[in-house]
Amino acid sequence: MSFWPSVAVATPAHGGLAPTLSYRSESVLAPGSLVRVPLGSREVLGVVWSCPDTPPEGLDPGLARPVAAVLDGLPPLAASWRQLVGFAARYYQRSVGEIALSALPPALRDLDNTRLQRRLRRLASARSAAGAAATSPAAPELSPEQAQALTALAGAQRPVLLHGATGSGKTEVYLRATERALASGPTAQVLVMVPEINLTPQLEARFRARFDTAFGSGALVCMHSGMTPAQRLQAWLAAHCGQARIVLGTRMAIFASLPGLRLIVVDEEHDPSYKSQDGARYSARDLAVYRARQESEVPDEEAGGGGPDTAPARCQVLLGSATPSLESWHAATQGRYQRVDMPGRIGGGGLPPLRLVDMNHQPKGALVSPPLLAAMQARIARGEQCLILLNRRGYAPVLSCGACDWKSSCPHCSAYRVFHKTDRTLRCHHCGFTQRVPRACPDCGNLDIAPIGRGTEQLEEQLAALLADVRRADGSPARVARMDADTTRARGSLEAQLEALHSGEVDVLVGTQMVAKGHDFRRITLVASINADAALFAADYRAPERLFALLMQAAGRAGRDARHSGASEMWVQTWHPQHPLFAALARHDYPGFAAAQLAERQAAGMPPFGFQALLRADARTQQAAQAFLNGAAAAAAGLPGGDQVTLYPAVPLPVQRVANVERAQLLVESGSRPALQRFLAAWQPLLLQARALPQARGLIRFAVDVDPLSV
Ligand code: ADP
Ligand code: ZN
Ligand code: ZN
């Protein structure tokens, strides 16, 4: 007897192919099985989606190709995992095969059965080595707020939004929640997500310290893009086969196969890094909420027991942040999420007060104002540390000729190349194009070409000069260091730099927003933002939300050690000290800020009160990109859901050309998420037709971005 498995394979995003392809098999294959199947002239990895015993309609049984091999010894991917993938594909307008296959570790694609069996044996022996539970190292006694949060979580039937001040001990809540979830059964698993790879080492150390003794070091695995293919494969297998009880990872980990998933923690849930910016543009935070609900609903057909009467075990989701996204905050005010507050800091220290420096009253051209500089000097003398933020790396964002109009434009992008003084290069931060700085103006030969504006390199240089005479308590000169994407590129350099800070070797750390996030710096008592004004008046309606979160997070780096917290301060230099954002920041008043922002969003029909998608196009010319978008819009007339959807005219992106590719986008808006979804689903096939329009010749690619983070 023959079966006709439909298999998800990695198909091109807009290939116009069916979501899954049909094959023939002489034996029945469980849905979720991993198989190798022919595709064109290649043999590829696929996931069995269903396995009917009659050929699907329209399939000529004689033409169906046989499944080449089944990967033995691997349990099938659970129904709930397949549902997650199916949902993500539908919601984000991608193919099931693309999402399914990109969710699997790349090394699985070229794994034959022999090597797979070897890996599985290695995994099994690691498990027996883990041994029996020993006593866990002592956990601190919970603060009353932490205890309350955990009680609320235990009873919660909805997603829980943990709104905890920086330093309120959210991580301890995650640890206890994890402990409880793991105790709920011998196969229970927990997924903990962080926004950036940088933050994994710190969190991994804390989870290992708590759980390694009891569960063995193999019970925790990491998943992020900084791992080698072999490491990723091993981590994936450990999670899929149940040896790993805790998976700690970045957004990609949301698709990990976790058959015993009982808890998902999303740390710093407001962070934009949870939204993928290429390929399938999913939000790992939103998928976490979906996944938790759905894991609680789908009985797993393969998990034994699970008859129709047995309710599936509950899976909870815990979103944590000191500055939640307005989406999550709004969901909590509506009662869709349950909010739990932890306003106090561990040790009772307060949040650092805000010192606004009105730059209108400072000496002209001062990068660091005199009062801020004085405050820094005092701290260094006392043996305390300062963190100075400037959200622009490099020495200067542009070089310019004083005699003619020459500027350091990138020949391939509509952007300037940034001057990096350390290696004397002009570097494009969009396409990477790098050249040595010219000695003279390339256009007129003038020798006087000068940097305009400031980046972290320049700030580091200036501070080193300004603080040259300052002595630390022990008489040695003050030391300034810089931490940004440039200084942390090499493997291990981030750890080394963090260590230099923790050990007290460094007095002043200059950096971009990457240093403001999540790190637990003990001796920093002054945090300053040098120039944040651009975000106050940005066209992007999310800019204030981001700035507020950044400054709150940055302030949270100060005074984490209660011994110093009394003297901690957050400084902000601004030309607009009257801006209401700073008033809310001075009160550490996230709820007040959120309410004001939400009122504005509601009045304008913006998310979370309205729903958006972008159709993006890349083309050889701007005309072709826009012609495709406008052609697609014209074709959309009369589509289902269309009466509730507004299409805006195509516009170029703010940075219109990158690496010689012209970029444009078209905004789609609706007051109803289901209507928007219906519309996008119906629109998809028409996009393929619009691509073929003669005026769209030169179109390179297009993509739909659902719930975009910047429009
Ligand atoms: P958050 O993530 O909310 O900013 P952390 O979880 O990093 O805060 O906690 C801040 C500090 O307080 C950490 O050094 C942590 O070890 C410590 N801490 C957390 N909970 C407790 C507790 N119940 N008792 C003592 N120290 C705690
Ligand atoms: Zn010139
Ligand atoms: Zn460029």
Can you offer a commentary on this structure?
The chain has 711 residues and is an alpha/beta fold. It contains 18 helices and 28 strands. Helix 1 (79-91) packs across helix 2 and helix 17 packs across helix 18 (673-691). The longest helix has 19 residues, at 673-691. Residues 302-308 have low confidence and may be disordered. The chain binds adenosine-5'-diphosphate (ADP) and zinc ion (2 copies). One zinc ion binds at residues 410, 412-413, 428, 430-431, 433.
Summarize the structure.
The protein is α/β, with parallel strands linked by helices and 711 residues long.
**Number of contiguous helices:** 18
What coarse outline follows from CA principal-axis ratios?
globular
| Rounded Rg | 27 Å
Q: What is the strand arrangement across the widest sheet?
A: 8-9-7-10-11-6-12
Structural class: alpha/beta
> How confident overall, as mean pLDDT?
91
Helix content: 25-40%
Bound molecules: adenosine-5'-diphosphate, zinc ion
Strand content: 15-25%
Summarize the main sheet: 7 strands, parallel
- How many beta strands in the DSSP annotation? 28
Distance N to C terminus: 54 Å
Low-pLDDT parts are: 302-308
